[in-house]
Amino acid sequence: MSRDWENGEVTTGPTLFLCLAALMAILDWVAVAKDSAVLEYVSKPSATAALLLTAAMLDVSRNASWLWLLAALVLCLAGDVFLMLPRDAFIPGLASFALAQILFTVSFATSSVSGGRLVIGLIIAIPASGLLARRFVGAIKKSGHGELVMPVIVYMVVISAMAVGSIAAGSAVAVVGAVLFMASDSLIAESRFVREQRWHGVGIMVTYHLALTGLVLGLL
């Protein structure tokens, strides 16, 4: 993480964009709760774009880890757009986020990682992802969308790898972000393939925005 953040000294630009991201995120939660497509079209990508600009403007080393993080956020922005389109663009959205998870993982891998923490991450992630796969793969088959089984399995593998990478990198903030990202995606799968609840939409976006914030602040 940037020394500026650790010491409580944050330059004006990143602070403003982080505040803008928070505002846009809250507006998106309201849009989802009220089913306002117009407000969501503005607020959802704007929140991610503001977090991208926050990361880009932070006073940190412009190293490989930082570049991979920015690239991952760009893909998250693309995924946001795909998943909010009126037409069904689930596969392009899933692909965008899968690539984003891979780049987040690479970003962690190019920072300082610990072999011991890596083992701990694997011990936690393997059974957790196995339980999720067991729940959702069966539900996908029952829903009549068997063609989505393999893409979803691949996505679960890459997001689990990202979570393991966050643990190996040793940033508690990033670990929280990774866990929240998994929670957000689990809610998407739950609402799409198992049983949708009224609170799922807002829950998905709250956990997603907090996840991205944690990953940005934890990696830089």
Describe the structure.
With 220 residues, the chain is an all-alpha fold. The protein has one domain (3-219). The protein has nine helices and no strands. The longest helix has 28 residues, at 115-142.
Please give the structural blueprint.
Elements: H1 3-6, H2 12-34, H3 37-57, H4 64-84, H5 90-109, H6 115-142, H7 149-169, H8 172-194, H9 200-219
Keywords:
220 residues; mainly alpha; 82% helix; disordered N terminus
Helical stretch count? 9
Helix fraction by DSSP (H/I, runs of at least 4): over 70%
N-end to C-end Cα span: 4 Å
What is the 3D form? Answer: globular
Rounded to the nearest angstrom, the radius of gyration is: 17 Å
SSE ordering: HHHHHHHHH
Strand content: under 5%
Structural class computed from helices and strand pairing: mainly alpha
Structurally, the number of domains stands at 1
Q: List low-pLDDT spans.
A: 1-9
Total strands: the figure is 0
- Average pLDDT value? 89
**Major β-sheet profile:** none
What is this structure, in a nutshell?
This protein is mainly alpha-helical and 220 residues long. Helix content is 82%, strand content 0%.
